Amino acid sequence: MSVTQEAGSVYALLADGTTVEIRPSAPADFDAVKAMYEAMSSDNIYLRFFNLSRQAAADEAQRTCRDAGPGRIALLAVSDGAVLGCASYYTLGELAKPGDQAGRGAVRTAEIAFAVADHMHHRGIATLLLEHLISFAVSRQIQAFSAEVLAENTAMLRVVTDAGLPVRRHYADGVIELTFPLPREDAGTALDTYLDAVAARERSSDAASLRPVFAPESVAVIGASRRPGTVGRAILDNIVTGGYRGRIYAVNPHAVAIGDVPCSPAVADLPEPPDLAVVAVPAAAVLDTVEQCGRRGVRSVVVITSGLDAAACAALLSACRRHGMRLVGPNCFGVAVPGIGLDATFAASHPRPGPVGVVSQSGGLGFALVDQLSRLGLGVSSFASVGNKLDVSSNDLLLWWEQDEVTKLAVLYIESFGNPRKFARTARRVGATMPVLTVHAGRSAAGQQAAASHTAAVATPLVSRQALFEQAGIIATPGLGELLDVTALLATQPVPAGRTVAIVSNVGGAGVLAADACTDLGLTVHHPREPASRQLGALLPGGAVTGPVDTTAAVSAADFRQCLELLAADPDVDAMIALVLPTAATGDLEASIAEADISVPVAAVVLNQPESVRLIDRPAGGQVPAFGFPEAAAAALARAARYGTWRAGPRGQVPDFPDLKAVQARALVREFLDGTPAGGWLPPDRSAVLLRCYGIPLTELTPVASEDAAVAAAAGGPVVLKADVDGVLHKTDAGAVQLDLRTEADVRAAYRSLASRFGDRLRRIGVQPMITGGTEIIIGVADDHMFGSLVVFGLGGVTTEVLGDHEARLTPLTDTDADALIHSIRSAPLLLGYRGAAAVDLHALRDVLLRVSRLADDLPEITDLDLNPVIARPDGVFAVDARIKVAPYQPRDPYLRMLR
Q1: What is the distance between the alpha carbons of residues 487 and 609, in angstroms, rounded to a whole number?
Q2: What pLDDT was estimated at residue 803?
Q3: Does residue 457 register a pLDDT over 50?
Q4: How far is the C-alpha of 760 from the C-alpha of 472, rounded, in Å?
Q5: pLDDT tens digits along 627-686
Q6: Burial 390-423 (b: 16+ CB within 10 A, else e)
Q7: Structure confidence by residue, pLDDT tens digits, 833-857
Q8: Most buried residue, 250, 472, 842, 849, by most Cβ within 10 Å?
Q9: Spatial distance between the Cα atoms of 11 and 3, rounded to a whole number of angstroms
Q10: What whole-number distance in Å separates Cα of residue 888 and Cα of residue 225?
Q11: For the segment 91-100, what is each residue's pLDDT rounded down to a tens digit?
């Protein structure tokens, strides 16, 4: 995990969902830390210090509150000014691995220690502090922790052994020495095990903190008016008429009651601290209102109010953090949980309960989605309009839906990402059990920035988001209509097990259109074989049974149903599209579809229905989605099949490369930035060294200072001469490359030409062997500091931007990601063997992609990297040009448990 956890204050959730501040200690904390130790029982003093001396506690408080140094740090868990727990590490230096007498496998190790206030035991404080210590230590290249724990201190032993890391124990004289390695990006399964353990703890604590929002026992509306037609009054009325069974209060200084709901003049006068407060007051009053909520003990707030500037938003979030309240909004439309009758929104109608969870940054679009899902009869499990999402976001909703036992599909409308990497990991885990769907919002090119390299030119925000969605298995659609289509399909049908679709229609032309749409979308149209084709022929005289099946317009309802059941029983069929146009000559073909005994996913198309999508009830229970057009049904099935392929596929592993020289690479980047603090492009020789540190093959480039030296270096030709010119990034465009030089005369002429063309701007000329044959590709890295590093892959050379055949994935790449990347571009057949040509060395190509991914993950200072072109041939992969740009940057740990 190549991250930096800066020494600052953050807020995080304990196991029971309460909020604590995690921050480094300072000398000013001495009295508070000492007070925590002095309040500890004798038993806990003994377990912590191995003796009963109260002086040991005072000495430890003094040591804890020293300023942090290079080899030590102490973290505090604080709430309301009181220290609830502390944790620290002190480096021990380089320790040899067991059995390594020479110390060649020396590991930089630190000793850790913990203390938790007596009244805060069993609430997850020590575990949370340990995770934050790990994040600090990893960013400072500490590789392992050790701790000495009394054998009877079972609570502390559980903290370490349950952390999710492999622990080695050594027992002597009643003391257990624990040693465990810290998670690294190259640790593969070990890292995943740790992150999964962290995610499980986060899921539990996050759900506990959201219970007051989505399962409140009491709700107060602050700003509810006596006058109908206002936002606050509409929210209060919706809560009352929605059938909410909890306790309802209103706050209005000018009313005793609004309808049957009692009013309090101020938050402080409420008869109890409500679980949820909905704030609908003018912008100028929001901060004071939320502060009152915090002082009254309110557990969560939904701020409807808009118009808060950046400073007000920061103050609002700070107030919620100090008082331990979760915050939805501001600038939102509210929340709804139809299953418990809670409709804390100002929507025109109540949502229907159902299995679809909806979160939306746009309140209006969120209302529209909920209305459409209710119209369809699907309904929602819970809805949150998160607005400015200062706190509660789509990440939180995914965690809630994962455990609520109601939600079966997650639908998101997201315009921005606060923590894309954590979102991707969460969505990937959730998507393994329920479909996660979204709209590709904000696809405009207006937000793209001018790029100085080929890679950055293709690494647009859309590409970054698309990579995230692809790797996380998220079903992304270009618009709301398509989103509703695939939601209707997946909410009522099983996920397709493959991509072969049987098409049955009583309108031949509609079947043709469906077949075309399926083919365009990568689905395979089913062609019945014996005995199914013979049975269909007997059933449908005059019809077409080779696929798509045309029953003719005169088919009876019974025969249409039997046709569907015959095809569904074919083991080659993964899904079906049944297209019907009701006529006076046929029976009820819709009923045939609904009544058919079909186990595979089926999408109906009713060609004369006015709705774009609706649901047909099945007599035996369940529903069938009915679309208005063949293309819509095919698109929904294609997206569902793609999701099914992702869900059933292997997750892959991030490989370990024992030959890497990461320490040398970090030193090279650090040295360059010391001399160029603003960052910039590495010189070619340093780029080559950096790539060699990661085992990335770059064709040797020999620098020369004269014609004679160039001729000597070119012996054995053919060669290429490349000019390193100040200010020139794209050498070919600038005429800084001379190709296929075979004779001494060619080399001399090329050298003179380059020297003449660039004059004083010429830094050096390099001679490189000419790599012939193969396919030119580009492998690159771009980093937008939000999504993290992005590996870009595609057809390369000077036409890379013109052809635009690129795909991308976020780091770290697994072996599965690398394979998918190779096969994802349109030009993949050129790599796999086209028209009898030999395939390129796919193992070597995959290896380069994985090594580039590791380089980018280890060195987040790399903002741009271009290997272009890379020549892929059957005998290997050869990068012939490289450019690397670095800048002083360190990302925060994306997986650390902390609130936004």
Answers
A1: 19
A2: 64
A3: no
A4: 51
A5: 999 999 999 999 999 999 999 999 888 898 999 999 899 999 999 999 999 999 999 889
A6: bbbbbbbbbbbbbebebbbbbbbbbeebebbbbb
A7: 988 889 999 999 999 999 999 999 8
A8: 250
A9: 18
A10: 53
A11: 986 544 444 4
Give the whole-angstrom CA distance, residue 204 versus residue 403: 9
Dig out the tokens for 581 from the structure: 């146009």
Peptide bond into 330 cis (omega under 30): yes
Angle, CA of 280, 282 and 284, to the nearest 5°: 130
DSSP string, 427-491: HHHHHTTS-EEEE-----GGGPPP-SSHHHHH--HHHHHHHHHHHHT-EEESSHHHHHHHHHHHH
Q: Give 446's pLDDT tier (boundaries 50, 70, 90).
A: very low
pLDDT of residue 448: 40
Closest CA to 37 of 150, 112, 115: 115
Q: Supply 269's token pair.
A: 């006068």
CA distance linking residue 607 with residue 387, whole number of Å: 39
SS3 585: coil
Residue identified by tokens 């991509």 is: 499
Closest CA to 665 of 425, 427, 884: 884
Residue found under tokens 């294609």:
638
User: According to the model, what pLDDT value does residue 517 have?
Assistant: 98
Residue 102 has what pLDDT? 35
CA distances from 357 to 371, 396, 414 (A): 13, 12, 14
Q: Rounded to the nearest 5°, which phi and psi values hold at 741?
A: -90, 115
Q: Which of 310, 311, 306, 300 is closest to 335 using CA atoms?
A: 300
